[in-house]
Design goal:
Number of helices: 16
CATH superfamily of the domain at 461-530: Golgi alpha-mannosidase II
InterPro entries: GH (IPR017853), GH13_cat_dom (IPR006047), Glyco_hydro_b (IPR013780), O16G_dom_2 (IPR045857), SusG-like_C (IPR056300)
CATH architecture of the domain at 461-530: Sandwich
CATH topology of the domain at 461-530: Immunoglobulin-like
Strand content: 15-25%
Number of strands: 23
Mean pLDDT: 98
Shape: globular
Bound molecules: 1-O-alpha-D-glucopyranosyl-D-fructose, calcium ion
Main location: cytoplasm
Radius of gyration: 23 Å
Strand order of the largest sheet: 11-10-9-5-2-1-15-14
Catalytic activity: Hydrolysis of (1->6)-alpha-D-glucosidic linkages in some oligosaccharides produced from starch and glycogen by alpha-amylase, and in isomaltose
Domain Glycosyl hydrolase family 13 catalytic: 12-399
Subcellular location: Cytoplasm
Largest sheet: 8 strands, parallel
Distance between the termini: 25 Å
Helix content: 25-40%
Amino acid sequence: MTDWWKKACVYQIYPRSFMDSNGDGIGDLEGIIQKLDYLKKLGVDIIWLSPIYDSPNDDNGYDIRDYYSIMHEFGTMDDFDSLLNEIHQRDMKLMMDLVVNHTSDEHEWFRKYDDFYYWRDQPNNWKSIFSGPAWTYDKVRDQYYLHIFSKKQPDLNWENHKVREKVYEMMRWWLDQGVDGFRMDVINFISKEPSLPDAPDGDGSPYFMNGPRIHEFLREMNDEVLSNYDCVTVGEMPGATPEDAMIYTNPKNREVNMIFTFEHMDLDSGSNGKWDLKPLNLIDLKENLEKWQHALYKNGWNSLYWNNHDQPRIVSRFGDDGKYRVESAKMLATCLHMMQGTPYVYQGEEIGMTNVAFDSINRYQDIETLNMYHEKKSEGWSHNSIMKSIYAKGRDNARTPMQWSDASNSGFTTGRPWIDVNPNYKTINVEQALQDSNSIFYHYQSLIKLRKTYNIITTGKFKLIHRHHPNVFAFERIDEHEKLIVYCNFSDSTHTFDLPNGEILIHNYHQLDSNQELNLRPWEAVVFYQN
Ligand code: TEU
Ligand code: CA
C-alpha cells in the first residue's frame, strides 16, 4: 500500500533526554540504538527524531547551524548511519525533523548571503513567540532581522528561490541517505505577507501563519523532492483549521500527508495564551476532535497526538496523575488510538510519565519558559503565580529524562543529566512496566497491535455519541459491515449507559461492571466490536 503510514504508529524521540550512552548527561544516537529493541517490542513502525543536526542549542537543536552534520553531543555521521541501518534491520522507519522556517544565526548563510533572511531598516511591532520583540538589531549590517522564535533563530526568506533550492537540495541529500520522511517544523509559517505589516496587538500570526504562498511552496517542495521518494510527511502547523488541513492533506493537492493541529491543545488556555490556565471542558474537546475527524474523512488524513516535546504530559493534563494514573493513562491512549488517523506516541507516554514541579526556576532549561519567567517577573507577577503556569504548561515537563529504571538518574545516565530527572522515577519506569503485565506499556502495545488486525481502526467513519455528556467521550467507528464502539470516562465518577453488544477488544479494567447496563467506573475505557 502506498499509504503505508495510515496504518503506522509513530514514536517520537527527544534525543537529548532519551538515553545517554557515554555518561556526559546528554542522550545520544548510540543510546537510541541500545533501545531499539524496546521500541520494536512496543510495536512502533516509525521513529521520529527531534533535530539531531549541528546546533548551538539555543532551542535544543531547533536552531540548526549545519544541516549536513550531526550535533557532536549526539555522535557522528557514522553513528547516524548505524542508527538508520539498525532501524531498517528491525523493519522500522526513520522520520527526521525538518526545521526550515528558520536556521541558527550561526548558520553560514546568515553572513554569507544578503537576502536569505528578512532584513529591514525599521522593525515592525511583532512579538516573538518566545517573548520580547520578533526583531533584533544586528551591528554588522546596521539592520534588524526577523525571528518569530528566539533571536538565535532568524526566519528564512522563502520568497527567495535560492533559499528554497538550498532547502530542497538538503532534503534530497537526507532522503538519499535512506531516511523515510520528515516532520516539518512550523512549516505553515514559511510564507509571510511580504509587506510585513504591523499587527494590532503585536501578534503577527495573521501575516505568517498559512501565508499567501504556502500552498505553492509546499507543492513545489513536493514536485522537486518528495514525489520522487516513497516517504511520509507531517507538517507541524499551529493555527491551521480543519478547513486548512483539508487543503494541506488532500492527496490531490500534493502537499503533505498529514498535519499536527494545535486546536485540541489550546482548549485549556484562556484568551491570554498558553500560560493563561483554564480547566478543560470535555465537551469542547469532543466537539473539536469530531470536527477534525469529519473534515478529513476521505479528504485527507489526521495525525493523532496528546504529547510531544512542547506539551505537558497528558496524564497530568487531561488525566489523573495520582490515584488513577494507570487507568487514566490507558483511557487516554484508548481514546486517541481509536480515532481515525496516524497515532504518535511521545517517549515516556507509554509508561505514563507525569509532569514535574521543580522548586527553583534555575532547574528549568527551556528557553521559552525562562524568557517568559523573566518577562513576567519584570512585569510584577509573583514567583508563585508564574510557577503555577510552568508546572501546568512548561515544555520541560516533557523533557525530563526518560525513566528506564529505578537506578540512579532513572537509568538514563551514569553522569549528571542535563536536566533533572522527575523524582517519581523510582516507581514509574520502563523496567517496572515491562515486568507488570497490566502496565500502561502493554496497553499501548495492544492498541498498536489492534490497529494491525482491525482495518476499521484505519478506515471507519467517526460518529460521536452521547454528545452532551460532560464526562464521557464516546464514539463509534463505522464501516459497511463492522462497527467499533468506544467509551472513555474522563472523570473519577461512575456513569451509566445502555450496554452495547459485541466483543470487547480492549479494556482498562479486568471485567465490565454491568448487568444489562454499562457502569463506566473512574477513568474506565472499553471498546466493543460488532460485525
Ligand atoms: O514548535 C512550534 C510552536 O509554535 C511552538 O512554539 C509551540 O507553540 C510552543 O512550543 C509554544 O509553547 C516548534 C518546535 O516543536 C519547538 O520545539 C520549537 O521551539 C519551535 O518550533 C521553533 O523551532
Ligand atoms: Ca551522551
